[in-house]
Amino acid sequence: MTDSKYFTTTKKGEIFELKAELNSDKKEKKKEAVKKVIASMTVGKDVSALFPDVVNCMQTDNLELKKLVYLYLMNYAKSQPDMAIMAVNTFVKDCEDPNPLIRALAVRTMGCIRVDKITEYLCEPLRKCLKDEDPYVRKTAAVCVAKLHDINAQLVEDQGFLDTLKDLISDSNPMVVANAVAALSEIAESHPSSNLLDLNPQSINKLLTALNECTEWGQIFILDCLANYTPKDDREAQSICERVTPRLSHANSAVVLSAVKVLMKFMEMLSKDLDYYGTLLKKLAPPLVTLLSAEPELQYVALRNINLIVQKRPEILKHEMKVFFVKYNDPIYVKLEKLDIMIRLASQANIAQVLAELKEYATEVDVDFVRKAVRAIGRCAIKVEQSAERCVSTLLDLIQTKVNYVVQEAIVVIKDIFRKYPNKYESVIATLCENLDSLDEPEARAAMIWIVGEYAERIDNADELLESFLEGFHDESTQVQLQLLTAIVKLFLKKPTETQELVQQVLSLATQDSDNPDLRDRGYIYWRLLSTDPVAAKEVVLAEKPLISEETDLIEPTLLDELICYIGTLASVYHKPPSAFVEGGRGVVHKSLPPRTASSESTESPETAPTGAPAGEQPDVIPTQGDLLGDLLNLDLGPPVSGPPLAASSVQMGAVDLLGGGLDSLIGDTSFGPPPAAAVPARLGAPTSSGLSDLFDLTSGVGTLSGFYVAPKAVGSISMDLQLTNKALQVMTDFAIQFNRNSFGLAPAAPLQVHAPLSPNQTVEISLPLNTVGSVMKMEPLNNLQVAVKNNIDVFYFSTLYPLHILFVEDGKMDRQMFLATWKDIPNENETQFQIRDCPLNAEAASSRLQSSNIFTVAKRNVEGQDMLYQSLKLTNGIWVLAELRVQPGSPSLTLSLKCRAPEVSQHVYQAYETILKN
Amino acid sequence: MIHSLFLINCSGDIFLEKHWKSVVSQSVCDYFFEAQEKAADVENVPPVISTPHHYLISIYRDKLFFVSVIQTEVPPLFVIEFLHRVADTFQDYFGDSNVGDTLPTGQLSNIPWRRAGVKYTNNEAYFDVVEEIDAIIDKSGSTVFAEIQGVIDACIKLSGMPDLSLSFMNPRLLDDVSFHPCIRFKRWESERVLSFIPPDGNFRLISYRVSSQNLVAIPVYVKHSISFKENSSCGRFDVTIGPKQNMGKTIEGITVTVHMPKVVLNMNLTPTQGGYTFDPVTKVLTWDVGKITPQKLPSLKGLVNLQSGAPKPEENPSLNIQFKIQQLAISGLKVNRLDMYGEKYKPFKGVKYVTKAGKFQVRT
Question: I want to staple A813 with a disulfide (CB 3.0 to 4.6 A). Which of A333, A856, B281, B320 is the partner?
Fold first, then answer.
């Protein structure tokens, strides 16, 4: 017998008949009738009129029938809320049924009925089910909390369900743990600031145990949750990694990718010298490759993530180039992604193979793909110097095909090759010029014009060529117009005698007949330069250009690090942090990679540690996206290779963030570097007179910043001294500064005042007054301060450690009795002892020196020839620190014991002591 | 997670919708249709589409689009995997008709993937070792890329709670494996034995990948010459196919599919074996070859008619080859034995091997 007959009734008066059957005394007949009702409902007929009759059938022992009635209720309760209340009693009763399946079914259905009036009645049954003896019921109830939270968040909080959920993380049953994590994650999404998933080593252990035994979907939730945890040291990170690696062999690709995320993140904490680090790298490759044999949709998401992974850790997939070779019937979205990754993996070792493939692709049918393949050949030439010659000849072959769009793409990339390897391949210019007429795309026209202008002295008829473009000047796009203007000016500077008329013509077209302000501005600048000082004009316009960097469209390192934390999410598909696109910014918590902290080094003093790891060795070139200084040098052709358009917006987002106050994510302590638009070589801020520490270590930046703190000069006045140096070729204006939330609420007390625009190579020194009324967030380390400085060009991020004694306040002298009482009152485990070596001061000298920094001596005594100083100090946020300083005459070492109710400050207070005493 | 789900057929009808929270208007699918229009081919619709207020994550299966509407940051793979599971379930449930035979019921058990109280009169356990060769062969016949995608599919109809152990003659071949959750990972790590309590019925036990070049044999070779004459409206087509590294087994079920360039109007060919069709609309040439007998190699040759006046095609078409070899796992993987614990009866056991072409492409 099949169920298809239920769908086929066509009689008239159907509802009436069904009503009669539903109310029948015979169980079988009733059940048949409910099935017919459900059948009608699923094909879209309105059977809501039968609500009371169907609800009457709810009280039954038959599980199948009960399920059907519940299904009906879920569908119609919303439209009949008053009637739905009739069902409440049965739900409550079913939640106490001896059969766990029925209990679970009842609580699940109640969660799915999104009717306000019912939710109140749901609370009691739900509470019982959350503590049910059967794990199946508990796991269903856990999810129900999340559903209820979506309907009425306040109710869930008031009823204490969140705490019960948190308790379920320690449940003995792995499915319950997984569902509790899933529910908490979903709730946490709407409360980004709440500390719902407060992870500690014990709960992590629970999660890892549950991970092995719960369903695949549960594993994804647990892994994503684990990824938010920051292990306390490298050992813990390694042990978590070891327990997560088996997930890489799961058949569900989402499980695999979530595991990859955890590993990529925690790997950051492992030392590269560890054997385990190498093992882990090796283990990551096969699962990533396997993802590429899945369905195309999965491949696409996997490829977008692999794109991030190969940028962060190219070593993982360096031997796997071949799996990214394109099959002709791959969907186009897979093809384009594969191509991108091929270029990223291209190296001297595999370039021959890659080029052969690219040449093959360049003859395919799909226009977008062919274009990208041609560009890829150009990128290879720029990336792998040894292959440049072969790439150029391949491109020339392609130009010979005369396929219009291939020729245009080839010309665009050849321009970049000229930029990268000057004076090497200019012999091909003649071939390029032959194709001048076929170029109809602005980018290709602009590239060709740039080439003609740049090499005007080698092209006999350069003036004719450029003149031919000039005829339709006003119909050209801005890009082409700007290019043409510059090219003709270059031509004029190279061959002034023959081209005077031409240059006048273009200048007047640009300045008098154009509505485009950029074009006019540039026209005027050239005009004035040429009329006032032709020699200077030559120096400016024909100046040597900076080389373009090898890797184009790399994701900026800070963003990349953040995106690594978002592997497997939509952010990883769009290559944008969720804050940039999740609606309303709801549920967005910024993430950053954990710092590399080997447990053995944890006692190292921050003063000797660098303020932040340098963001890699920046090549002494500008990435091609950074065309900010290119205007006059005429580098404004745009990036030579267009990456996914979404990835390019990081700079602007940074700027928005500065104003919006969400800086937290953009500064990772381990790797901050300026966005790509502004990268120029490193310069370390020189240590200055106060010599407190080299605080700013900006690895690079168009404007180099250096600075230091000065101790409070007067009560309540803290200031930060900055030294801003403009290393760009462009004037900087519109400076602004902002701090991220920090441990003591440090904030600028006044705007950053840079009165005059900062010209290239100029340096200004600014003292920025600070106060401590800003937002507070505990930082790691405690005295870490993350700063963003903005100007008209870009936003610069850096983090710095400040000495704690700038926060010592003047009324920090504690009464003697009070001191004694407090000292006794603070538990002994809060006491920490430090040695201050090489400090041959006597007690008086030490005391007076410390007093000038607001560390006050409360009492002094002499015990067995040693001077004991009892001292107190108070921080701006009201925390008292008590100290005992033991000075042994004749010994250069001092012993410092600190007691404080917030023992985490002790380490920093000790450093402050050392700084003050040794200065 | 997933807010709503729409099922859309190839002609663009939204024929099923399901909303888990509030109702999202069907008009959200317009963004999907837009993307579909932009993509020339249905298979080219991007799987993740952003709209002003939602994200659409979709899969394309059996001429249907499963389009899910997402409102918050989610793992897209989670959603895609889930959609494929929904599609699997529909396939299982509906089969070929559009109404299922049973309304599903559930049963509690300690093992999430297996219900309690399973009973069969004939207890049987069958395993299919299926290997597909993915390869790209270049013009000159050398292998650009080749790997084996293997799976072991199981059909287990065993009563009670059987606990199975499957071992291999050469488990070392398997170094990149994805497991069904039922498999005890530790046991595999330490002993290279697949130990598991199976789900009831059909399921995929493992999938694996063999990529080491010397393990991937290429069982066929193709000789081809496809040329178009300049300034003439014709070209020549000549393809011969032959066996190579086939371990002495017969290669059967051979099909050659070629997407000819757009300017090809028609093809006039003669096969020495099998039949061919050319669809002048899609430009797809399909040659159903059948078996290879080494004495007389199958070939297909003849003339290609081009649109007159059109320039000769730039690209040369790739040949897509399908074939099948029974009783052979091309990687050499062999099952050693299957043992059952936990139940008393004696089951019927069986293992079948088959090798097929996966994405097997020959460039010309």
Answer: A856
| CA dist list (Å): A41 to A34, A37, A49, A50 | 10, 6, 11, 11
Q: Which residue in A251, A322, A331 is closest to B204 by CB distance?
A: A251
Contacts of A608 (CB under 8 A, 6+ apart): none
CA–CA gap between residue A59 and residue A66 (Å, rounded):
8
User: Distance, in angstroms, between A641 CA and closest chain B CA?
Assistant: 22
| Burial annotation A320-344 (CB, 10 A radius, 16+ → b, else e) | bbbbbbbbbbbbbbbbbbbbbbbbb
Nearest-Cα residue of chain B relative to residue A400: B314
pTM, rounded to two decimals: 0.68
How big is chain A, counted in residues?
919
ipTM: 0.79
Residue of A nearest to B56 (CA): A570
- Chain A residue whose CA is closest to B318: A328
Q: What is the DSSP string of A239-274?
A: HHHHHHGGGGGBSSHHHHHHHHHHHHHHHTTS-TTS
Using a CB–CB cutoff of 8 Å, tell me whether A300 touches chain B. yes
Write out pLDDT tens, residues A731-743.
788 888 888 888 8
The DSSP secondary-structure symbol of A891 reads -
What lies within 8 Å, CB to CB, of A654 at 6+ separation is: A666, A675, A788, A794, A795, A797
CA distance A258 to chain B (A): 9
Which of A 35-54 lie inside 8 A of B, CB atoms?
Answer: 35
Q: Is A23 exposed, middle or buried (0-12, 13-18, 19+ CB in 10 A)?
A: middle
Which pair of structure tokens corresponds to residue B277?
């069709």
DSSP H helices, chain B, are 29-38, 76-94, 185-191
Residues 6+ apart with CB under 8 A from A869: A843, A846, A847, A857, A859, A860, A883, A884, A885, A886, A887
Chain A interface, best mutation among B57, B78, B186, B356, by max A CB count within 10 A: B78
Q: In whole angstroms, what is the distance from residue A412 CA to residue A444 CA?
A: 5
DSSP code of A685? P
For B353: left if phi > 0, alpha if psi spans -120 to 50, otherwise beta; the answer is: beta
What's the token pair of residue A62? 């038959």
Dist. CA B47–CA B43, nearest whole Å: 10
- Asked if omega into A640 is within 30° of 0 (cis), the reply is no
| Closest alpha carbon to A282 in A235, A241, A343 | A241
CA-to-CA distance for A160 and B107, rounded, in angstroms? Answer: 32
Residue-wise pLDDT for A375-421, tens only, equals 999 989 988 888 888 999 999 988 888 888 899 999 999 988 888 88
